[in-house]
Amino acid sequence: MHMLLTALGLVVAITAHADEDNDVLYQVSTIDALLSGVYDSVATVGSVTEHGDFGLGTFTALDGELILLDRIVYRAAVDGTVNVMPASTGTPFMAVTRFEPDQVLGVPTAQDYTAFQRWLEDKLPSHNIFYAVQVDGVFSGITYRSVPSQGKPYAPLGEVIAREQAVFEQKDIDGTLIGFWCPDFSEGVNVPGFHLHFLSADRRHGGHVLDFNVLQATVGIDETNGWDIKLPMVADYLDADLSSDRSAELHAVEQGKGAAAAESDRGDHGAVMDGECPGHPKRQIRMD
Ligand SMILES: [Zn+2]
């Protein structure tokens, strides 16, 4: 009996350990480093996917939106194309986990992104851990963006979004939203609240989600209580000034408004952009 209990105990311990390992958000670099223009490669996507099969990020020089789904790394490029990328491709920021949903919920129909966020935040068991979030379904409409490759010296992300993001709209499309909900205390390191990327079911369309309307969908949430951050030992990161509060900039960037909107949101022109006025955001709306 004692032997049996010991054996059972061992099995339980091994299982618990395995779960713990899988419930880790692993990321390279920080969101504030990306906001400040640290776009050099800090890791290969192949080295990051050793830590997860599901996640998001971007590529070296900010060359498109990164989507990791079922171990495959996709690039949603600024021209609207989606391609599978090799393991040797570089990334300046990427966040991944091993996706094993703890709950799957039906999403109320006709929700837009704002209503969805409110609805799902209410359902999260706690606001003090991380969640991987996967939404599968049909969208009556979805708006997402991508960004073009940048040359040096790199401009801050808010400026790039304001000047150069391409915004895409699709109607009645099947697809998956891939991303995370992070707690408020992750500010500066990851994105507090929801950060979702889109990949269509036919793998031909994708990008950083700005808005959507759900026709029919389920959402899987994976409770994630580990957080493993790899800070890059590259000059681009090590020499960056990461001392300022970039939360207003992040808010604007996540919503696709960019630097000009961040300034007007704050009502203090110059604080975000160091005195340089980037003008009004230009948006290219594309539909296909
Ligand atoms: Zn994104």
Assign an overall shape: globular
Mean pLDDT across all residues, rounded?
87
Strand-residue proportion: 35-45%
Percentage of residues assigned to helices: 10-25%
**What's the tally of helices?**
8
- Calculate the terminal CA-CA distance, rounded to whole Å: 67 Å
Strand order of the largest sheet: 6-5-4-3-8-1-14
Per CATH, the superfamily is Hypothetical protein, similar to alpha- acetolactate decarboxylase, domain 2
* Radius of gyration computed on alpha carbons: 19 Å
Low-confidence stretches: 4-18, 261-284
CATH architecture: 2-Layer Sandwich
Q: Could you describe the largest sheet, including whether it forms a barrel?
A: 7 strands, mixed
| Series of secondary-structure elements, N-terminal to C-terminal | HEHEHEEEEEEEHEHEEEEHHHE
CATH topology: 60s Ribosomal Protein L30, Chain: A
Verbal overview:
The chain has 288 residues and is α+β, with helices and mostly antiparallel strands. The chain has one domain: 60s Ribosomal Protein L30, Chain: A, CATH 3.30.1330.80. It has helices at 2-22, 31-35, 45-48, 113-123, 157-164, 235-238, 247-254, 258-266; strands at 24-28, 43-44, 54-58, 65-69, 72-76, 82-84, 90-91, 93-97, 103-107, 130-146, 166-182, 193-200, 206-224, 226-230, 284-287. The strands form 3 sheets. Strands 6-5-4-3-8-1-14 form a 7-stranded mixed β-sheet. Strand 3 (54-58) and strand 4 form a beta hairpin. The relative contact order is 0.20. Residues 4-18 and 261-284 have low confidence and may be disordered. Zinc ion binds next to strand 12.
